[in-house]
Amino acid sequence: MLVQYDNRRETVQRGAFIFVVLASMVLPQTSLSQGSFGSAFETPSVLPVEQAFQISRLSPEVIEIRIAEGVYLYDERTRVESTDGIEIQTSRPEASVYADPIFGPTPIHRGVVELTLGSPEDTVRLHYQGCADIGFCYPPVQTELSFSR
Question: What is the pTM assigned to this prediction?
């Protein structure tokens, strides 16, 4: 019995083998750069509280809170008090209502919030709390803010 080989078939097989070898060298590098399941399944990261809520005192009367993208601030948990612990009335933009999975409909702020103090003092305490959209909630925070005239 005479066996004949098809040279064209052997060329295609050799080309496919080279393609598979080259692909196996490139694909592991790509998958490492995207995490174990690719970029769509990366573990979301949580910003430190100082980056999630950037606070500055623009004037004796105004405190500005810049809220990072993907983070929100609870309106009801944001308050200002004197160093003696007496609450200072503030005016602020109207909050939007968010359907919080734990607390139900809750007023929140996103973006930039300016708190205007009813009775400004040189040093005040700001209390606030917020959450990231990914489900992480920051613990309540308190910070002292001073303004020298």
Answer: 0.70
